[in-house]
Target: Imidazole glycerol phosphate synthase subunit HisF
Amino acid sequence: MITKRIIPCLDVKDGRVVKGVSFVDLRDAGDPVELAALYDEAGADELVFLDISASHEGRKTMVEVVRQAAGVLSIPFTVGGGIGDLEDMFQILRAGADKVSINTAALQQPELVENAASRFGSQCIVVAIDALYDPSEKDWYVYTHGGRRRTEWKVLDWAQQAVDRGAGEILLTSMDQDGRKNGYDLALTRTVSDRVRVPVIASGGAGTKDHFVKVFTQTRAEAALAASIFHYREVGIEDLKAELKQKGVHVR
Model:
């Protein structure tokens, strides 16, 4: 039986953790290395760090954050944001990350996914997909550049392409739900997790323990990611796992 994973996400800007709603209105949520250590102790299964100020200076800041976090963590962690080539990946992995997450660069140069999987192994390569529903098209489209630019890719088509090219995992974020705390986008998560052959991490919308129960029992998502409800201590990871076990969800 697959063990479901709980993954706090740390959006890092200029060396600090921030959180917003639908990718805007950011507010400070703390020191990334301190939060990483707290989540490790609290029973998180993995962590995701996303560098949302990924200029050249932001990248240097992030490498140092990764190096410091690697010194306090015993759980795997993934780093994404502004990673544009194999050298960026190498620097992040060498600093101590277990996986790298790519979004915009993967869409701009799909061969990067293949090359990265070949060099570092598929298990290290996460393709992040920011999805927004288009009611007129009755489908989800992929967005890049931190949710600012729509592409012509439909989410399911791109997810399948990314996996075919070597992605070992899909980090699927609903922009419609992000930060709103009214639940994961179950239809989106189900659509993708039913079709691809690699683990899907559901992201965007967690607000209660029941939202995790639903995403794990009503879709094939193997992991669920959340940020603000953990950062502001609205839901504790230990309590969440107890609730999931009670509802028959297999967790560590």
